[in-house]
Amino acid sequence: LRYYAGVPAETAAGVAGAARQQVADNLLVFMHWCFVMAHFERELYRDPEKDLNTLWWDMVEKYQRVRRPDNRSSADWAAKIHLASSPVYYHNYQLGEMLASQLLHHLRAVELQGEDADALVTSPKVGRWLQGELFAPGALRPWEEWLEHATGEALNPAYFIDQLAGRDA
Fold first, then answer.
1. pLDDT in tens, 78-94
2. CA 164 to CA 169: how far, in whole Å?
3. Which end of the chain has fewer beta carbons closer than 10 Å to its terminal beta carbon, N or C?
4. DSSP-based three-state secondary structure for 150
5. CB proximity list for 95: less than 8 A, separation 6 or greater
6. pTM, whole model, 2 decimals?
7. Mapped to the 3 state alphabet, what secondary structure does 78-130 carry?
């Protein structure tokens, strides 16, 4: 905000905490939604003759803690276009969030080590690293191998958890 929008430092600092909390809240809510989709879909394919309306609301209640409406027997699950257009895909959104947290950690802890926090948005090192380690290799390796090569470690959910807990700043 300071560098690109000219917001005074004090105002930007005041907004930063709320913005980090909003990101963490969104990630947490979305993670629970991903759980609903992944577990529902796994059971759908395991037993397609099952009562899918009940299964859907069982998953929503379990993972989102949203109570099912009384006397509801509609196929609410069928409103999710992903089931038809991108089956067995929803978990990739969660993997992407975890990967993004790990990349952010790597940039801050390794590539920008010793630099101030603003370096994440001001340092040309970030662009060079993304270009050289993320974009240039393309699909030369499976994503798991690429991540380990680029960051020095396999997918580590601790960075996502740290981001949820506000320990990533």
1. 999 989 899 999 999 99
2. 11
3. C
4. helix
5. 155
6. 0.86
7. HHCCHHHHCCCCCHHHHHHHHHHHHHHHHHHHHHCCCCCCCHHHHCHHHHHHH
